[in-house]
Structure formats: C-alpha cells, structure tokens
Amino acid sequence: MRHFIKKLILASLLAVCIIAPANAADPENTLYLDLEDGRVVIEMQPELAPQHVKRIKELVRLKFYDGIVFHRVIDGFMAQTGDPTGTGRGGSGQNLPAEFTDAPFERGTVGMARAQSPDSADSQFFICFAPAPFLNGQYTVWGQVVSGMEYVDMIKKGSGRNGIVSNPDKIVRMQIAADVAQ
C-alpha cells in the first residue's frame, strides 16, 4: 500500500509539471504583437521596469498601438514604433521616469525609445534585430521576444542613417494574452 501511495504521489507531481511547468508564461505579462506577416509574442518584464510595463499594458488595452507604423527601422539594429503621428516625434503624452537596469540589449530585446532626457520615454519602443551593447544601462528594457522574431526580421527597413521608412509596415493589433479569449 505504501509503495502504491508513493507512486501515486510521484505520478501526481509529474502531471502537475507537465500541465503547468514552472516557467509557464504569465498571460498578464505576455503581449501579442500582430504584424501583417505573423504574430510576435513578447514576454513583458515588470521585474525590470514596472512602470513601463504598466503603461504599455494601459496603452495596449486602449488599442493605442493598433495601426501604428514602424517609422524607424535600421537594418541590423532595431525596428521602432509607438508614435501615433508616424514621425518619431509623437507619443501618448505621458513621460515615464527611466528604469535603467543591467539587462543587456540582445536580439529580441524590447526597449523604450526616448529623447535626450532619460525621463522622456512615452509610448515609443523598439525591438532589437541584433545585440546592441552600446544601449546597455542607457535605455529601459521592458520585454523580450519569445517567439515570432522571424516576423520582426521581415519588417520593411528604412533608408539612410536614421532608418526612416517610406510606406512603412504597421502593427495590425496588440493585445495582452490575458485579454484574449482562448
């Protein structure tokens, strides 16, 4: 009987691990970024940038990002979006204090764009195509692409040093996974 109980407990523990792995994504901190070519899944990192993640969620739930273009895309560096004017000068009207950390800017890292002032981030963000260590400690990291990076790679690139895009690709829709009917 005792041997049977041990097996039952072990089987139960195994079932729990299979059904709900310890590293399962938190739907409240998972962002779906739908592009014309496919879905990008971003794991938001509130432990790194709680105020930035909170603001991104507010804007996503207001459908702020739906239809906004990638106005600045530099091949081998990053794709930037989040400006409702499409010029790189607009935002939601609410600046955020910097939340710099030692988290590195790697391929797929999502960071907040800002002006010269460290406390000028608003709604614009960028996704790195490649490691960008020169940004480390200078910009707020708030997320990481966990799937769909191939679709980020397909975003139309800009020309020139500033990567300004003519006829740019758009965000089709952004959603928090917790808000999406399963």
Keywords:
182 residues; alpha+beta; Cyclophilin; eight-stranded antiparallel β-sheet; 3 helices; 8 strands; disordered N terminus; peptidyl-prolyl cis-trans isomerase activity
Q: How is this fold's topology laid out?
A:
Layout: H1 2-19, E1 30-35, E2 38-44, H2 50-61, E3 72-74, E4 78-81, E5 109-112, E6 125-128, E7 141-147, H3 149-153, E8 171-176
Antiparallel strand pairs: 1-2, 1-8, 2-7, 3-4, 4-6, 5-6, 5-7
Enzyme class: isomerase
Signal peptide: 1-24
Domain PPIase cyclophilin-type: 38-179
Largest sheet geometry: 8 strands, antiparallel
Radius of gyration (CA) equals: 19 Å
Cα end-to-end separation: 41 Å
Count every helix, treating DSSP H or I runs of 4 or more residues as helices: 3
What share of residues are in beta strands?
Answer: 15-25%
Mean of pLDDT: 89
